[in-house]
Amino acid sequence: MITIKGLREGLLIVFGEEPWLIQMHELEGKLEANAHFFKGGRIALDAKSLVLTVDDLQRVIALLTKYEVNIWAILAQNEITSARAQKLGLATTIATPPREAARQDNGEPAEEYAVGSPEAEGTDGLLVRRRVRSGQVLRHPGHIVVIGDVNPGAQLIAGGDIIVWGKLQGLAHAGALGDPNAVICALELAPNLLRIADAARSSLSVPKREHNKHPEMAKIDHQEIKIVAWQEK
Amino acid sequence: MHPIVVTITSGKGGVGKTTCAANTGCALALLQKKVVVIDGDIGLRNLDIVMGLENRIVYDSVDVIEGRCRLRQALIRDKRAPELYLLPTAQTRDKTAISPQQMVQLCDELRKEFDFIIIDSPAGIEQGFHTCLAPANRVLIVTNPEVSSVRDSDRVIGLVESQEKGPAHLIINRLVKSRVKRQEMLSMEDIVEVLSTEVIGVVPEDENILMSTNRGHPVALNGQTPAAMAFHDIARRLSGEDVPLQVQQSTSFIKRLFGRG
Ligand SMILES: Nc1ncnc2c1ncn2[C@@H]1O[C@H](COP(=O)(O)OP(=O)(O)OP(=O)(O)O)[C@@H](O)[C@H]1O
Ligand SMILES: [Mg+2]
């Protein structure tokens, strides 16, 4: 079983115990099913104890390249695998181990950390306390919370929910690993483009709302993204 | 006061970086500061033309870096101000001719002699931007009051912040008040709302700029046109004076009324 984690520098794909080819197949399935989530992303692979040939490595690089994913490191317990990855010009260490990245909670834009299925309450996420600017991309398999505005041209791509304590412009994709129950909330919802799982809604298709300077939530209702005012119950 | 390296850049090209670098340099020099302006746009040399010093170039910054001359030999003194110098760049080299490291060393050398080192940088998407960013103490982003320019500026501000060179400050260039009033052009407030970046100057659209560029005589050397006043205010702010933006706008408006005659 493959798991996807968030790192400061990008995503980490961790391989499980099963044979390599089976997991390659699983990876391809994940990339195919969640192309929007991975596209343009930067990833490291953790091969754990698997022993991989140069051919194996080249094949996984080719697979990732096909889905427009940049791989920058391969972690391996096996030294020969490690040496082979190095020969292919890949890093074999990552700066911050995921656990530690999570603990360094000094108010800095701790760029991420998270694991696993975003369905469950209490899932990890990425908290960013700053303005997200044009050209910047936050990508995380869990939830993304931004305290600050998200400018036009910025992108938030989350496996789980997206919450913006500020004005959300730019692109937001919640449930990007296929969860149609994911939601997008903002104090002011004025995005260029909203996506939830496979549904999309561009700002053009949103009737100009005069009074959208109040909290709103976007969610899927009958296969369509609906935007509703946030009401305290 | 410690010497300050001011890098002037933008999101996209053609928004007025070179104009701002030349005029801010002149205005600082007229405040009795010792100033050098560096052309950081290797291969696209034009700061020398805007300053009217083209015919005096013998050596350039790449000659200095590659050891063909001493730094002092490449500096061109502009006699129209007390202490104003230009360090021109090479016309036939590409942007990799000077590394960020080398630019830092060059500026460290210049810090010994000058109060202000102004770098006319390429735009943030271009090669050579990181070279000009490396030595900066202050980064000024030139933006035009239009949506696409502001969007590009936002990107560069993000880059500057991620290099820990921030906070960047804004020069809003080519503002036309009447068009803002008619809501045809973004206002300063509109721009600040998106960029949340401090504004260090608002330079109006000024027909004198074109002429002065062609003549090689920066408007700030005379100090009478609307844009010239804006550059003098920017120079005073860079020198640490507290010149409120609001006051600047109204005084320059009044001065504009009387300064014309
Ligand atoms: N405030 C202004 N009023 C009128 N014209 C201006 C103003 N500022 C700049 N210009 C004009 O805009 C043009 C571009 O200016 P400039 O060369 O300074 O831009 P730049 O950002 O340095 O361009 P590049 O990216 O090509 O280096 C010039 O023709 C200049 O005269
Ligand atoms: Mg220029």
Any overview of this molecule?
The complex is a heterodimer of chains A (233) and B (261). Chain A is of the alpha/beta class and 233 residues long. Chain A has 2 domains: 3-87, 2-Layer Sandwich (Transcription Regulator spoIIAA); 124-229, Pectate Lyase C-like (3 Solenoid), CATH 2.160.20. Chain A is 20% helix and 32% strand. Chain A has 5 helices and 16 strands. Chain A has helices at residues 20-33, 35-38, 54-66, 79-87, 98-103; strands spanning 3-6, 11-14, 42-46, 70-75, 114-115, 125-128, 137-140, 143-147, 155-158, 162-168, 171-174, 184-189, 193-196, 199-202, 216-221, 224-229. Chain A is elongated, with a radius of gyration of 19 Å. With 261 residues, chain B is of the alpha/beta class. Helices cover 42% and strands 16% of the residues of chain B. Chain B is built from 12 helices and 8 strands. Chain B has helices at 17-30, 47-50, 61-65, 71-74, 100-111, 129-133, 147-162, 177-181, 188-195, 207-215, 226-238, 245-259; strands spanning 4-10, 35-39, 76-78, 84-87, 116-120, 138-143, 169-175, 199-204. In chain B, strands 3-4-2-5-1-6-7-8 form an 8-stranded mixed beta sheet, with helices on both faces. In chain B, strand 3 (76-78) and strand 4 form a beta hairpin. In chain B, helix 11 (226-238) packs antiparallel against helix 12 (245-259). The radius of gyration of chain B is 17 Å and the shape is globular. Magnesium ion is lined by residues 17-18, 41, 46, 120 of chain B.
In short:
Chain A has 233 residues and is an alpha/beta fold. Chain A contains 5 helices and 16 strands. In chain A, strand 15 and strand 16 form a beta hairpin.
Q: Any key phrases for this structure?
A:
heterodimer, A: 233 residues, alpha/beta, Transcription Regulator spoIIAA, Pectate Lyase C-like, six-stranded mixed β-sheet, five-stranded mixed β-sheet, B: alpha/beta, Rossmann fold, eight-stranded mixed β-sheet, 42% helix, disordered C terminus, binds adenosine-5'-triphosphate, binds magnesium ion
